[in-house]
Amino acid sequence: MMNVIVHRVAEFLKRFPPFSFLSKEVLEKVAGSVEIRYLEKGETLFRQGQAAEAHFYILKEGAIILTESIQNQEEIRDQCDEGDVFGVLALLGKRPYLLTAEVQENSLLYAIPVAIFEEVLEENSRVALYFAAGFASGQVVVRQDLSESQKARGAFKIKSRDHSLLIFSDQSEIKFSEKVLICSPDDTIQKAAALMSEKHVSSIVVCQTDMKPLGIITDKDLRNKVVSKGIPLDTVASKIMSTPILTRRKDAAFSDLYLTMIKHRLHHLVLTEDGTDKSPVCGIISDHDVLLSMGNSPAVLIHGLMNTLDVKEMRLICDQAEQMLRYYLENELNMDFVASVMTEVNDIIIKQALRIAENSLVKEDEVLRKIPFCFLSLGSEGREEQLLRTDQDNALVYEDVPEAIAEDAHAYFLKLGTAMVEVLLACGFAPCPGDIMASNPKWVQPLSEWKSYFSEWIIRPTEEAILSSTIFFDFRPVAGNLGLGETLSLHIYEEIQKKKVFLNFLANNALMNPPPLGFFKDFVVEKSGEHKNEFDIKSRAMMPLADLARLLVLSHGVIGVNNTFKRFDRLVALEPNYEALFKQASKAYEILMRTRALEGLKNQSNGRFIQPENLGKLERQLLKNTFSPISELQNIVKVRFQLDYFPS
């Protein structure tokens, strides 16, 4: 009978982390040590301040809430559901409980002895990481390390196998030329060079009559060995060829070919039938071929974008970029790198859109076409955070012109902005629901008018003005005369210095969205409409952090830093006493960006609305942990800007 019970306990435990990380033998050992407890509604398992017991717990069935006593009032910190692990202070800190565990419904618990589980912690790094990451219920109150949480998410899931990106997986499709240009060792240098020029290639293989390679001549050889040293052009090819020649089989693994070229600093690698120079040449691979074989690498995509003005081709490259993005996100690559790559891709698309737009207006008045202007990215793209092709937010500023041509200039730049927006639409970027785009006459203005816009928003911070500020203050000059954007940034800084009370209005706005956990510490979801019961990760989690970062950076007079997690990184240097909090806020925002993008890629959407019930237990807990810095930052802002005395 005992064996049956142990088996049932083990079957239950293995459904939930961290027990799901254990081997069958270890799991059965843990299950055999479990103490089964039944508690009735209204009972208390342990109290805040009580010495930690020699067990921690996993809820088998029922409901338990974890509360904290603050100024004689009980505040709910977490609610435990089936499979939740809690009471881990006995395992981790060996200090008094910081929370009280109250039984909400008749509940069945498994109490797991600390003594037996400490061995598991020492031997199983994934189990240790689970607790270090703060995934146990209520644990985020005890310790908060989102860096560990992010690391855990990467360690606990199945990796993507996008073979076009795994260049050392030997799964990449190798592209090389089977038509190899050859010459005889007795041919002159001039003949060899003429053949290379005729075929538009950068190398020629010197072969015997049986096609066995003797050496190779490249453009570099012609420059360094012939031109620079004045060798006569009637010299035979064998005198300047690089030899002995390095060869490989054409069916060799991609990693072998690639690493051979890197190790020997080769721009060309000759392929033969058996991989030696004793068999006929059957192909050649160049460093350019390697680049193409890497498929979705940033270098290939960016190179492709920079060399096309075909909108259909640009759209295909955008699709490829999203596949690259998926791989980067699923494999937990550094978000700074991911965002930088996607920003570079998006910026090049914008610059190519400008070229296409200017080409379409080539017949317009030359005076108008010579007026300096700048295309501005706003919102997430302005902050270098637009990973998916979400809504466009952009505008256009141009240099002030004489009154006589003001109307014509506005008409011209409106055409230019509209043409650019249309290219971006064709590339898959959605239109802005609020029509904040360079196709809207209101957002295509001369520099003086843009200065008036910002001055008005700062001097008269109405609700609409504050909303505009949160969008337009994150502008980033991308294409055209970038100096116009820099001039505008300086104007904003000077205006805020004149009226610093504007920051109080921004602060008040930054408190409009409280941390998105409800009374029972579950996600605050939409109550009605198209997205009923879905969680709005943008407005409820990302926007509060973006608003707080913007406010605090502006309060220090910092301009030119738009990215949210970079703003928090800057704040670490500016306010070292809050270093831990700012680092957690930065990491939280990175995790939210990654989560939204993955949801968008999975559901072919903008990723804004998430169904919490579709998230795994670990993913739900990770997301909840990111909300903690919001509350702490809002409390700091509330005190710093004296918002208790500020009219709402």
TrEMBL record:
Domain Cyclic nucleotide-binding as annotated: residue spans: 18-121
Keywords (A to Z) from UniProt: CBS domain, Repeat
SMART domains attached to this UniProt entry: CBS, cNMP
Top-level taxon of the source organism: Bacteria
Keyword check for Repeat: yes
UniProt cross-references to InterPro entries, sorted A to Z: CBS_dom, CBS_dom_sf, CBS_domain-containing, cNMP-bd_dom, cNMP-bd_dom_sf, DUF294_put_nucleoTrafse_sb-bd, GlnD_Uridyltrans_N, NT_sf
Every CBS domain range: 176-233, 241-300
Classification via Pfam families: CBS, cNMP_binding, DUF294, DUF294_C
Protein's UniProt name: CBS domain-containing protein
Organism of this sequence: Algoriphagus ratkowskyi
Highest classification ranks of the organism: Bacteria, Pseudomonadati, Bacteroidota, Cytophagia, Cytophagales
